Amino acid sequence: MKKISIALTIFLLFIIIESTCKASYITNGIDSFPESYRPYLEELKKRYPNWEFTALYTELDWNLVIEKECEYGKNLVPKNYSDAWKNTSEGVYDVEVDSGWVNASKRAVEYTMDPRNFLNEIRMFQFEKLTYDEKNNTLEGVEKILYGTEFYKRNVTYKNEYGNPINTRENYGDLILEAAIHSGVSPYHLAARIKQEVGPFLSHPSISGTVEGYEGLYNFYNIGATSSTEDLGAIKNGLRYARDANGASEEKKANLLIPWKSPKLAIKGGGVFIGSSYILVGQNTLYLQKYDVNDARGGELFWHQYMTNCLAPYSESYGIYKAYSSMGLLNSSIGFLIPVYENMPEIPVSNPNINLNEFQTDNTLVYADVQTTLSLRTGPSTSYEIITSIPAKTQFTRIEKGIQAGEAWDKVILKNGMIGYVFQYYVKEVEETPEEPSEPEIPEIPEPPETEEPSEPPEIEEPEDDSGEISDGTDLSFKAPLVVNENKVTGIDMQKLTVKDIKECIETELKFDIYKDNQLLQEDEQIGTNCQIIFKNEEDEILYKYIIIVYGDVTGEGEINSLDLYAIQRHILEIEVLQESFLIAGNTTKDGSLPNALDIYAIQRHILEIEKIVQ
Fold this sequence. Notes:
By secondary structure, the chain is α+β, with helices and mostly antiparallel strands. The strands form seven sheets. The protein has a six-stranded mixed β-sheet, with no helix packed on it. A five-stranded antiparallel β-sheet has the order 14-13-12-9-15, with no helix packed on it. A three-stranded mixed β-sheet has the order 1-2-8. It starts with a helix and ends in an 8-residue tail after the last helix. The protein has helices at residues 2-19, 38-47, 62-69, 106-113, 139-146, 172-183, 187-198, 233-244, 250-255, 263-277, 286-290, 312-326, 499-503, 562-572, 581-586, 597-607; strands spanning 25-28, 51-61, 76-78, 96-98, 101-103, 155-159, 165-171, 334-342, 359-368, 373-377, 386-391, 395-404, 407-413, 419-423, 427-429, 470-471, 476-478, 483-485, 488-490, 506-508, 511-516, 519-520, 532-536, 542-548.
């Protein structure tokens, strides 16, 4: 009986190992993908005919993959994320695996692991093959990725192990390109990885050279920075690696240029590590570095993972896309390697930011009630990427109907199988098809337009430099210091931020109130960015809606403080992207650009009362 038990145990162990080490294979071309992938890839191919798509058939069961990746500590999200992103199990909920990071929910893992959620022109770059390309990889492209950080066109200065400052004539872009050539890894990937790992500031402990006990050591990619609850524990683990590669052989240390006693050694040697440990052994995309579902090292899968942040590939892909876009290289020949699993769900799991309780299952045939095209998006908001444009009168099926952030959106499936979200106002049931050529009635309250520019976040519209009395030509006027441009209200006096203060600057006989997150604010309550001034008639119907913008207040609290600094930093790193009104509020320079390091600097000066942000 004992021998049978041992034999059975060995057999089961073999099955477990075999199931996590099955050989993968690749096939080229859109036709080699499952049907649920094809419509998205066909859409991309129309726009970018030089893009090449390769299917990576992992031969792994989807349910097994999710089970393995949901093991404690493998996937983390920021602690301040909503519960939909976090593992809420007893004993795990809000327990910090690393400082400020907690275990991710199953839904978060399913969402970030399903490639079909990211087959659009921006997020596709998490599947880009990451080897060095002499033709397409340039210093200009590296600097485009570094823009908005303190690495941008900055000469390298650092402190040695004795605390003495060392000045060089090389800048960070030069070092990154040199590291790419030396390691065979894309410099765009290295630049994006540095931004992801240490953020936009040179003061990050991993690259400051001043951490006690690890003076003069640098780790730009946080290699070996395993999670620890000790103060600066992960940082110290990374710096230990920078010192001796965790006791590696002299040959390995020489290959990695260990110890990393300067930024140049750390960036160049770290590039070798990333190439030899990941990119050159099968984990040659951002996605595959995060999720160990294919590598050529042999052995068990699911553990050789570069980072624990489950949104890292999503975030880093944006920086790569922006670099290609700004240099006009999106039409270049670019190769993508996209995983496929066995027994994948018919419909991918929704983004955890979407409140599932506000969406109900539906099965109604509808059509695009627009004059030109209707945008199909990856989520229920104009801040989500556009997947495709649906021609007017095209029929499709609504599969869910709901509300997101006070707006009505439908989740739909097109006849080709493409799934996404459309603004409900521009959707009509087929039975209600009007006689042509009638036009859809456009509401007076500003809503998402019928046509929008694809791909990039929308340009931020800024108020004109005017002030004083502004009237809409009826019985409503705004008085100084308020400034109105379209439906945005700025010029707020930072000393007068209550509802009563704002109301005193508005002359009208209409009934109006101010709301925050759809909740009515009382006279003595404080307003902030994204609060809404809503005007109604005697029948309680909404006539006008204006959005309040307080420059520097990107959290909507009506104050400018360190939380706003943190929010912009997270936006730059694409950990948590600012949306709509908060994007405008973050652009403190009012130059129409997206929030960047200059805005962080302006907020710092405001907090220190060196120079106040002009409203």
